[in-house]
Amino acid sequence: MLAIERKKFIKDLIIEKKSVTVAALTNQFKVTEETIRRDLKQLEEEGVLTRTYGGAYISEGVQNDVDINLREHIHVEGKKKIAKECLKHIHSGDSIFLDASTTSLMIAQLLKDIKLTVVTNSIKVVQALNDNPSVNVVVIGGQFSRSSQSNLGRLSEKTLEYYYFDIAFISCRSVSMEHGITDSNELQAGIRRIAADHGNTVFLVADYTKFDKTSFIHISEFDQIQHIVVDGQLSEEWKEFLRVKNIFLHQADTPSPR
């Protein structure tokens, strides 16, 4: 296959699937990783995609559901800031929910020397807590999703309904004043919706790139959220909107909770 044909196939593939990995493309086209990386670099220069460690992704599309192995390498410093802010609100003896987001994974990785019960549907969160003897881990079962490394579906939702939490940490794909909190994946949205319903306190964790956007499926309105943690400064319009909704805004770059 000529290079120009291969790049067209890759372009069509990423438009359809929203993300690709170097390993999968190497196997599909029977070429070296160097060749695929060169193709991705050229497509990035053309504005088609954004490269990250191990592959590439695009941000557009209401059903954009990027593979978690790529998401782990996107906005890493921002997610770490959000996770550190969230840790300030977790206390010994709490029962918390961590969803299958990479920000929740970062929270799990930073948890140290605190007695907790963590309920999660994320296999990566379970692995992160495996060697932490202070944490009692409850794993929600269900149908395993390879792209998110989490358990999803009707069984997962039914099981999750048995549990209640001091704090539920949920993520999303998009946050909009008009449409509320939305996601690109219907099954993930179902898990997050139940977790928000069952949390005494609900923290929405979202990096700044998710604001003023709308995705495919509704998770919740703002009246179910008590705290929002973001890694940057939101606009004055957003600050006023959240103040009126009585939601505490934690901008991880600043010491103020408002």
Q: Which stretches of 5+ consecutive residues score pLDDT under 50?
A: none
CA-based gyration radius: 19 Å
Task: Note the beta-strand portion.
Answer: 15-25%
Please write the string of helix (H) and strand (E) elements.
HEHHEEHHEHEHEEEHEEEHEEEHE
Nearest-integer average pLDDT: 90
Could you say what the CATH topology of the largest domain is called?
Rossmann fold
Oligomer: single chain
Derived structural class: alpha/beta
Keywords: DNA-binding, Transcription, Transcription regulation
InterPro entries: Carb_Metab_HTH_regulators, DeoR-like_C, DeoR_HTH, NagB/RpiA_transferase-like, Tscrpt_reg_HTH_DeoR_CS, WH-like_DNA-bd_sf, WH_DNA-bd_sf
GO molecular function: DNA binding; DNA-binding transcription factor activity
Domain HTH deoR-type: 3-58
List keywords for this structure.
10 helices; Arc Repressor Mutant, subunit A; alpha/beta; 2 domains; 15 strands; globular; single chain; Rossmann fold; three-stranded antiparallel β-sheet; 258 residues; seven-stranded parallel β-sheet
Write a structural description.
The chain is an alpha/beta fold. The chain folds into 2 domains: 3-58, Orthogonal Bundle (Arc Repressor Mutant, subunit A); 76-251, Rossmann fold. The chain contains 10 helices and 15 strands. The protein has helices at residues 3-17, 22-29, 33-45, 68-71, 76-87, 102-110, 123-129, 154-160, 186-198, 236-244, and strands at residues 19-21, 50-52, 55-57, 95-98, 116-120, 135-139, 143-145, 150-152, 165-170, 174-176, 180-183, 199-205, 217-220, 227-230, 248-251. Helix 6 (102-110) packs parallel to helix 7 (123-129). It is globular. InterPro entries: Carb_Metab_HTH_regulators, DeoR-like_C, DeoR_HTH, NagB/RpiA_transferase-like, Tscrpt_reg_HTH_DeoR_CS, WH-like_DNA-bd_sf, WH_DNA-bd_sf. It comes from Alkalicoccus daliensis.
